[in-house]
Amino acid sequence: MGTTKRIPLVTGLSLVIALLTAACTATNNKADAPAPGAAPKSYADEPAELVIFGAVGNTEEVWNERFGTALKQKFPKYKFTYIQGSAKNTLQSMIAAGQTIDLIHDSLGGMRANIIDNGYNYDLSPLMKTHQIDTSRFETAVFDSLSDKGKLYGFPLHDGGLVLYYNKDIFDKFGVAYPKNGMTWDQTIELGKRLTRFDNGVQYIGLGVSVNHMLTMNPYSLPFVNEATGKAAINTDAYRKLVSKTILEPTDANGYRQYVTSIKKTFNNDNFMKDKNMAMFVMNFYLQLQPDFNTFNWGIVSLPVFGDLPGVGSQPYPNGLFLTSTSKYKDQGMEVLNFMVSDEFQMQLSRKGFIPVVKTKAVRDAFAQDTAFKDKQIVEALFTNKPASPIVRSANEGLVLSPLSANLAKVMIGEMDVNTALRLTEEQANKALEEAVRK
């Protein structure tokens, strides 16, 4: 599928907020703006048949457990039909079959390819005005991430973000103090060096990083693709600084490169969860939902920060619910979206361990209280840092990320220098991007 050049996103939710006060009307919105001081019209009692496509791939059972049951209880007049997405059951096959879709559950990573490129994108700004949505409650950066060219196409349901997991058993074994919230990358790398050692036939790694997650959600908000030119944007001093500090410097510890060479890959979840020879691991939150986390004593702290970005964590990476341009029930759809970001429902998600998208203190303080890991100081780990500004996502990010991670793996074991890796990646990625445009 070809791509088109797009104007860079200058503002996200800020433009939406401006639109809320502007004198505008929506051609596809049947409700007029309420009089000043008047409550917005409710559509909760007006029947609607809403078809939800689960592009994330959750089963209907999982969808209902997290979202569907609450929606049916809140809107008894609505009929909800959930369609699980899969490799065979795609949005393209739905379009070809003429299937009506009103709402799409997707991650940020699928917004460009699934929502925008398929023409499902619908600017929510006019509906937000008539339904009097209070945007001051929202975590701005999280909502910004679902914007494109100043238009908001969906509401986030819950967020994601990078954190630092650690294995308490390894720290205890070597008598080293646990990491703390608010540490810098320099401090964390030095701590990792103390724990990268060979002991009793086992090579321990002090600090591992999920390369793809670090690059995709990087705190400097560096994109893979230049939005204006459509070319790779990674052969820069800023990218060199990012990868050198977070991915390459940890490998300076004795025995680190030799171990990476022996396993012939960069680190993944299994190295931390199953092999249990890694003291610290930078990864997206929710890793603790894996059953292997029950087999060792783990902890969690905030993502290390850069000295010139104090208090800034990773970019948001939410799952969202998108109202489609083809839906005949846009007002009812907005009722659904508004409920999903209400304190009432966000509290339910928060207690279950899903990162809330509202700033309400009570909602955040209740985080993970209904989970087995409620005593792990999760709240501090997640909310010590503020989210980094989201970038404009490209549907072709993978064409840059794939060769970039492969070449960085060579740098980690000493087969290539970082300058060559970034230059070669840009050449490989630009060739792939040009081919994608021609298709």
Automatic annotation (TrEMBL):
Protein name: Carbohydrate ABC transporter substrate-binding protein
Keywords: Cell membrane, Lipoprotein, Membrane, Palmitate, Signal
Signal sequence, renumbered to the chain: 1-22
Stored InterPro entries: Bact_solute-bd_prot1, SBP
Keyword rRNA-binding included in the entry's annotation: no
The organism of origin for this protein: Paenibacillus hemerocallicola
